[in-house]
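Table 4 source record.
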Amino acid sequence: MSDASSVTESVLGHHLGAFVSKDLDQLLSDFTEESILIGPDATYKGLDAIRGFFTPFLEGFTQEMIDALNLQRQDVQGEYAYIVWDLGDIAPLGTDTFHVVDGKIMMQSFAVYMPG
């Protein structure tokens, strides 16, 4: 595994751990003021905007969702990571793509399908 892949995998592991533990400060430590998070409805740039996205998202992330979380696929190639996940019937498909530079997430894209 290349050095870049090792760093990306480490950042991704930290990010996922912070997400599952709902630790907003640790989650935000993976980003910078230049980071961009692209979601289905908006693009968020900088720590304040990304905090504004994750705060209500984590508040709505229930223990039932945490228990149902299933990481289907993880692929790390250098500075890039891609994950596919689901929350069972709650959200049968979710995906994130990351670009990690110098140990920080510079870009994350996110999409999830949550039926009715």
